[in-house]
Amino acid sequence: xxxxxxxLRDVAERSGVAxxxxxxxxxxxxxxxxxxAERVLAAARDLGYSASAAGRALSSGRTQTVALVVPDIMNxxxxxxxxxxxxxxxxxxxVHVLVDTEESVEAEERTLRSIRGTxxxxxxxxxxxxxxxxxxxxxxxxxxxxxxxxxxAEFASVAMDTPNGExxxxxxxxxxxxxxxxxxxxxxxSWSDGHRREALxxxxxxxxxxxxxxxxYAPKREAGPAVADAVLASGVTGVLVFNDLLAxxxxxxxxxxxxxxxxxxxxxxxxxxxxxxxxxxxxxTVAVPTERAGHHAADLLLAAxxxxxxxxxxxxxxxxxxxxxxxxxxxxx
Amino acid sequence: xxxxxxxLRDVAERSGVAxxxxxxxxxxxxxxxxxxAERVLAAARDLGYSASAAGRALSSGRTQTVALVVPDIMNxxxxxxxxxxxxxxxxxxxVHVLVDTEESVEAEERTLRSIRGTxxxxxxxxxxxxxxxxxxxxxxxxxxxxxxxxxxAEFASVAMDTPNGExxxxxxxxxxxxxxxxxxxxxxxSWSDGHRREALxxxxxxxxxxxxxxxxYAPKREAGPAVADAVLASGVTGVLVFNDLLAxxxxxxxxxxxxxxxxxxxxxxxxxxxxxxxxxxxxxTVAVPTERAGHHAADLLLAAxxxxxxxxxxxxxxxxxxxxxxxxxxxxx
DNA sequence: CAACAACTGGCAAACGATTGCCGCGGATGA
DNA sequence: TCATCCGCGGCAATCGTTTGCCAGTTGTTG
Lengths: 333, 333
What we know:
Two copies of one chain form a homodimer.
Chain A: H1 8-15, H2 19-27, H3 34-47, H4 53-60, E1 65-70, H5 77-91, E2 95-100, H6 105-115, E3 121-125, H7 131-140, E4 143-146, E5 156-160, H8 162-175, E6 180-184, H9 191-207, E7 210-214, H10 224-234, E8 238-241, H11 244-256, E9 266-271, E10 284-287, H12 290-305, E11 316-318, E12 321-323
Parallel strand pairs in A: 1-2, 1-3, 3-4, 4-5, 5-11, 6-7, 6-8, 8-9, 9-10
Antiparallel strand pairs in A: 10-12
The structure holds a DNA duplex.
């Protein structure tokens, strides 16, 4: 049975000052006399005092906590993001609540509702919610999004320029002689997916190649076989897959069916997650700077949370680039 | 500027009862008259009321939050654990604070100190702390460990029987004709490492083979080349590597040096993380049920947190098994 | 020398929910 | 009819911290 933790009152009594003075000594440097402050600090140290988060939250309205909401905790794409946000938030004195919504819009809503008031802010990664919903939530709670913007919204966001990376991938395939190429897309609720489709359609027109749109598919390895079979049926020689996880599943299936990659079919993934260079053939993919994205998102949120000069800082778009490995090659003769 | 969230007082006023009655209507079913309760519930619903975590925490002393502390957030080994704990905790109405200590004992201590009082309990995964420290913390805060036990401790834990899995791996290699086998170990602070060393030494004696102990190594891919080189220098034909991450690094290096796996050297990993079946040759490894471990850990903690009948439930040991893939084969003639 | 500012430290009121205690009214039993 | 008990709902204390306000002291300036 853990005994009662020391309170500010204990510290105050031990150092012979009022509770308010003790409070100020601890969190308003300069507000109290240096020698008094030192006495309080010493008492706090002796007692092993650390402020009660609940008390502080109640009184100041700030919890020093932010939530990171992701659609799939098992997708390595989010690891970099998690690490990026966590390291910055920790520096800023915040802790991190991690929420996995398992690709469900409803779970996302429920989560936001339940943590409203529990957290000072939210980082919403690859949200599946609609524009209106996000805009509405951004009125209620300081918000930063990753890979999602909302037109006319008044919150900051970090976007990765995946459409451009995909276009690079398309150009790569075209330069290898491919002229019929498929795009195996992700969930309809994915903002990123829509933008890629547009950019690819435009680029395909410009390059004079045929683009076959497939999907939507769940962005998971298990959905790979369906993609592989659809791709083979479509008669293309190259495919751009929504993300690496799905691409892994595609490669599994192609190997099982004895289809040569890249001889018969070139495959490009997206995200450059952990494992992309492990698989054989090593996956050509669009690399996105997830950890940096996490850093930026945390910085933007911290800026918005700044009690003295809260500000919605300019949004950020991070460049992506194609990493060519062994899963792409010249088009079949 | 988000407007003030509705408080219990608002609900009470709207339904024409006292705050205390509203509180009881919401969280003490049966304590108030059914029709009154319904009125309160309706008001709460209309207002979109959800209880302030801070207020509740302060008054009841419970935060409905638990911390999951892991040494390396980027190690896929912990993903399964995270998902396992999260799903169970959510069912129990708890949220999840994730902390990455980056393999540092000091960071682990610091974390525990800073979250004491912020959370109702802690799940400590693969802690690097010493027995005494863990025992001490377990006095202060309800605690469940994963892959770590402390003799005579009064907290529950979930252990995976990795030593047995490693012995299976050793037997596997021996049956393939290997007689000189290395064990490339993890951090000295890893409890699991010590137990595996003991079990392997015993088994090697029983089987009449020579076991070469190497290490300690950092359990990361980047440390792999050093392991690979040490293994080659040691003249063994098979190696048991501390975890898959490290094994991936070993395979990288062996491929770069043109060493045939499993022809010249057999490699066994541990954990069966995401990617183990992706790498080529696919990695033979000891599979551990991480998600189940997460479930159990959460259940044990929830049991300990139960306000009516708190209890330290019996600890759990989960079986592991060897997954044979392509990185092991007959010993070199 | 008077007036004023700057600096310190204390008092007490929030913040929002939980919960022990009490009192009121109606039902029950003797 | 009276004593008792129970069901229900209100009052008010409590949790630990922050912070607006004020008062006392000291130092500064015209």
